[in-house]
Amino acid sequence: MPVVAVIDIGSNSIKVLVARRRPDGGIVSLKGRTIDARISAGISKAEPQLTEDGMAQGLAAIQELLADAAPFHPVQTIMVATSAVRDALNGDEFRQRLLAATGHAIRILTGDEEANFIGRGLTCDPALATFDDFYVFDLGGGSMECLSFKNRTIVEGLSLRLGCVRLTERFVADSAAPFPAAAYDAIATHTRDELSRSRFRFDLPHRKAVFAGGSMTAVRLIRGAHDGHSLAFTSPVVAVSELRDLLKKIAPLTLAERRQFPGLPAGRADVFPAALVTMLTVAEVGGFRSFHHSLYNLRWGLADEALS
To answer: Sign of dihedral through CA atoms 217, 219, 222, 226?
Structure first.
């Protein structure tokens, strides 16, 4: 069966999924990999621009991921960019550099397109087969996508500028120091205000929510390191109380200490406290006691479309 490769150029990390369709219609992953490239430094500025280092790191990561996909001989390679490139004043320059270096064009997704592909990807997750009415939140470096499903169909989807890189740059004066209470309050207030302004409706009859993105993956990696399990053998259900307890452990640590915290990816250590506050605030506003974590998001949605 035909194989496709999808490269997602995110604000904090760049990822590849090589996939094909199973005989039963589902999507199977042949290869997946994530590289923390952080192309989004400066994303919170009034006039955001990709830095020279950020573009170089991004290009190097993409070339590595293209090499990973090459042995599978994909019939199509789809390359998309989200918040960092979408918002940067010099995003077109990065696109041109990448086209010249690799021969591949980048499709820059709008916030609505990003949200809808994330939703489509989640419907590929066998673990969510029994989910009918539920919410989805996908937290990235530059944005957070919010979706509402009824009868497994998206009825609302939007993208908010609540990414953990963006919020850390804006509200954390010194990310190398312990995470201060003032930053917690500022990020929580800003997140509540943005959700309120967006008029996202928390009106489903059941408080069932899925949370995707690298920060929730990090929560499970930390749990797995504590329990001696790999990610695959950790429960996808994450209680809000677990997030709250984890923030209590993480907040007093310096960045150097967070980078040594068992299970926490070092490249995510500086933005992880802001991510936890954002997740806790979403839980508070939505009235959620737990989240179901899924690894099936944007790349899966794009692969599903390409293989249709």
So the answer is: negative
Is the distance from CB of 253 to CB of 282 less than 8 angstroms?
no
CB atoms within 10 A of CB 213: 27
> pLDDT digit string (tens) for 144-198?
999 999 999 999 999 999 999 999 999 999 999 999 999 999 999 999 999 999 9
Which tokens belong to 275? 């991510």
pTM: 0.91
Q: Which of 236, 202, 203 is nearest to 219 (CA)?
A: 236
Q: Contact at 8 Å (CB) between 4 and 301? A: no
Q: Are strands 209-212 and 134-139 parallel, antiparallel or unpaired?
A: parallel
* Residue owning tokens 């979403």: 282
Fill in the amino acid letter for 26: G
- Do the domains spanning 3-112 and 126-293 agree at the CATH topology level? yes
Instruction: Please name every residue paired with 247 in a beta bridge, in sequence order, or none if there are none.
Output: none
Q: Are 168 and 175 in contact (CB under 8 A)?
A: yes
End-to-end CA distance of the chain: 12
As a whole number, the mean pLDDT across the chain is 94
CATH topology of domain 126-293: Nucleotidyltransferase; domain 5 (3.30.420)
Three-state DSSP state, 210: strand
Q: Which of 87, 111, 243 is nearest to 165 (CA)?
A: 87
Q: What is the CATH number of domain 3-112?
A: 3.30.420.40
Q: What are the pLDDT digits (tens) for 28-46?
A: 999 999 998 888 777 778 7
Helices 240-250 and 272-286 meet at what angle, rounded to 10? 150
Q: Which residue has the tokens 């919010």?
A: 146
Predicted confidence at residue 153, as pLDDT, reads: 94
The ranges assigned to domains in the chain are 3-112, 126-293
d(CA 78, CA 74): 10
Q: Which of 33, 14, 142 is nearest to 80 (CA)?
A: 14
